[in-house]
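User: Good morning. I'm curious how zinc ion would be positioned relative to this chain. Could you predict the structure with it bound?
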Amino acid sequence: MAKGEVSKTTKYREQYQPSSYLIDRVDMLVELFESHAEIHSCLALRRNPLFTGAVEELRLDGEELELKSIAVNDQALPLSGYELQDAHLVIRQPAESFTLKTVVQIKPQDNTRLEGLYKSGSKFCTQCEAEGFRRITYFLDRPDVMSVYDVTIRADKNAYPALLGNGNPAGSGELPEGRHWARWHDPIPKPCYLFALVAGDFDLLEDSFTTMSGHPVALKIYVDKGKLDQCAHAMRSVKKAMQWDEEVYGREYDLDIYQIVAVSDFNMGAMENKGLNIFNTKYVLANEMTATDADYDGVEAVIAHEYFHNWTGNRVTCRDWFQLSLKEGLTVFRDQQFSMDMGSPTVKRLDDVRVIRTAQFSEDSGPMAHPIRPDSYVEMNNFYTVTVYNKGAEVIRMLHTLLGADGFRKGMDRYFERHDGQAVTCDDFVQAHADANQRDLEQFKRWYSQAGTPVINVSDHYDAANQRYTLTLKQHCPATPGQKEKQPFFIPFKIGLLDKAGNDLPLNWQSKDADDQAIYGREAVLPLQRAEQQFVFEHIGEKPLPSLLRDFSAPVKLRYDYSDEQLAFLLANDSSLFNRWDAAQQLVSRVMLNAAEQFRAGEEMRLPAIVTEALAAVLDNHQLDNALRARLLQLPDIGYLQELVEKIDIDALVAAQQFIKRRVAETLYQPLRDCFQRVRGATGLDGDSAGRRALANTCLGLLVDSTDAEAYQLAHAQLHEAKTMTDRFAALRALAHSAAPNRQQALDDFTHWYVDEALVMDKWFTVQATAPLASALQEVQKLEQHSAFDAKNPNKVRALWMAFSHANPAGFHRADGAGYQFIAERVARLNQSNPQLAARLVSAFNRWKRYDDDRQQLMLKELKALLTQSGLSPDVFEIVSKSVEA
Ligand code: B3K
Ligand code: ZN
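Assistant: Good morning! Here's the predicted structure, ligand included:
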């Protein structure tokens, strides 16, 4: 193996072994200089009583560290006492317990991977999850080794007035030569992936929160100089999250201080380091003129997510990285619940379901399909996936549905009581719920071990003579890599039955083969446990229309043969608002897919009147709240449609989607215009104002889709007169995705206003990268040369390259393969500087098998070329090799 190259071997969950040693205490001194950093660490090591094997050596993890000195029990260790390997420091014949002191030198200034200690602009910061701590010092870099940390940071006082660490402050002072120091003590044992430090010159917003037991907590948000006017929303969000976790889960904060630092260079959204969360600026900074309503929601949700990790992730952590969903699925579920409580629950739910149905279903049916608790990986960073996170959250949601809110809370209480301070497994989590509720959840655990999306076929029969209605549910799950046969899942299947007037019928039902007692209500959660199961409803006086899988009660694909008229009826009447949206999506997707077929056959594409009538009724329905009406009117995008077909004919899908959008817009032009005029112009930050903006801007987008000159004028006027970024950006998006004559003018005006606002410029890049125009690739190539673009900055890479490859199907899948070539070349470059991000970018090729033969060949060619590249990182290697093999 070449120096600096890290192994591409596969790690298996089955091979878990407890660590041979534990580290009870860590004392660190971090000296920061302009050219390098020096890390002095003192580790109190002892044999792990749970480890039963013989111990001849101790292997500590360490990558790209320059060892300056090493001592055991304060005695310099002779060369014979240790061995330095490429990614390890091996101590020979270690004693039962001892202290190990090392001094290493590292180069944060040269760290472009943004893992370990690195510089973002003029600030030092860290990112240790999953395995970044080994790039700071020699350590047992695994989550089941938990230690109490004392950390001293030293740096130049002028350049780095703020020196921040985990836990509580434990002193600070001056040093010679203009330097200073600060010490931090974190009393709560933690795995090293939660370690963090920051040094820099920031603006600071301060506040405080008193916990339910009366403990005061200092709240601090550190941001770039000049950004203080973009922090208020983040601070409000922290306080809401703290209060919500007390009210809903009885969990309070456990340190004297809670700090958030926003940095511009960050590989993902944010990181829950104990007491010192480090955030991407995107999820902290927001004010009316820089952030849209969606950005505001994103800030609130991510702040809450990281805060909730304090209990689900930090106090109770993962035994090993295969258990990642233990903390991530659960914490996503918690942040989703929180957001539902803060705003419109239906809108939040359907937004979350869209992610599952597009990104997660796509992952589940491709080469990277894995259970929410993976069995193996090459590079752990590749498993921070929508499966582990979002499907993981759906699994927790099903548990919540099955146990009820009270039962779930009992289970959570048991989980914290039993496992506080431990590193545990997903099985431990489910067991706590089973024990607290005296339920057998063995079958439920299959959701953790089986990959793939179950399909449920539903058929029904109405027996008028006996007033009996029978639903037959059949489940099966397609094979995924390494898993041919699947066992039936335990699926909570929520339904209602509508009568002719559209009301829910009272239900009195029994499962034919389970010994459940009859259950009554107007909505039922059917416990589907077998491959095929019948549910019988008595005293049903008329043939009902079933409303199925309400609220998306399980992450499955549903098949039931609705007619267009039945879907329109559900859209107009279902008491489940979620299912109204679902009916709209099904109806419009169906006509889009039919139009795609017509396009393929060279026939004229058609839009049936029933669709425009149903959408006109939505526009007219003032009973529904505006945000929901906006969602009902948003037509499915290509990402959504792609998951509904076996083979993707991208040209036909694009043509059909554009045709249907334009026809809807032309047909409903007047009512859309009236609605737009009625609700536009709201300026408040409250939910009602945001709902009005959502509806107005959905109307505006459709008006522009009609290609009417007046619509272009409306958008242009809104771009200039807008009082919020939501309105301004919606107008820009509408124009940038159109053939409006003033399109370029709009883009130029926007950059003129915002060239100094990095996050707003990201939007400007994305809106062009995702434009469904033949010129998209050329535009992206031009934008790379723009002074605001920077290939070293992950936000910019996401805004331009990721947006183009992942969210511009027409552009990326150009028939000539130029889109593929362009992205593959960027992957190769990023592979050198930031492998983690390169792996995300290359996943655009994962679904190559789903496209037509020509495109398959073009994509495969790029993948194979990447595989032969020298110095391929494990990150990119894993994704590409799995894609090619599939
Ligand atoms: N736990 C981090 C993600 C770390 C990703 C490492 N590649 C953020 C979060 O989920 O809260
Ligand atoms: Zn998380």
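The pocket of zinc ion (ligand 2) is lined by residues 305, 309, 328, 331 (CB under 6 Å). The chain has five domains: 17-201, 208-216+225-318, 319-449, 455-554, 755-886.
Let me know if you'd like a different ligand tried.
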